[in-house]
């Protein structure tokens, strides 16, 4: 017996040090739709986070780097192709968003290309994918 799709999306919950400043960052710098419940870009299957005010700045804890990495990733977003990835990178650098990982290509992974940014609390959001337009 096969069940119909039951989960259509998910949100990453981020505790932030200043909710209003985070809302402004996600709206103005990342071009997200921001409400009192979420910050999303490209719908709930795109970049989707729930921003919650932390009780204390000490409660804001971005992920630590994994073994062999220099940067901890908190949210990962997949893109359809490298043109979309490059356009995001250009958009974010034009808005002076902090770049945590410059674009790079892993030839053995598809090849796979990615980059990452940091928000105002140090949460790292990575973007990557294979080039869907390649032959």
- Please give the largest β-sheet: 4 strands, mixed
CATH level-3 fold name = 2,3-Dihydroxybiphenyl 1,2-Dioxygenase, domain 1
Cα-atom Rg, whole angstroms? 16 Å
Number of helices: 2
Proportion of residues in β-strands: 25-35%
Second rung of CATH, namely the architecture: Roll
Given the C-alpha coordinates, what overall shape results? globular
Q: Which structural class best describes the helix and strand composition?
A: alpha/beta
Highest-level CATH class: Alpha Beta
Structure report:
- The mean pLDDT is 94.
- The termini are far apart.
- It is globular, with a radius of gyration of 16 Å.
- The strands form 2 sheets. It has a 4-stranded mixed beta sheet, covered by helices on one side. Strands 5-8-7-6 form a 4-stranded mixed beta sheet, covered by helices on one side.
- A hairpin with a 4-residue loop joins strand 2 (33-34) and strand 3.
- The relative contact order is 0.19.
- The protein has one domain (12-130): 2,3-Dihydroxybiphenyl 1,2-Dioxygenase, domain 1 (Roll), CATH 3.10.180.
- Helix content is 17%, strand content 33%.
- The protein has 135 residues and is an alpha/beta fold.
- The protein has 2 helices and 8 strands.
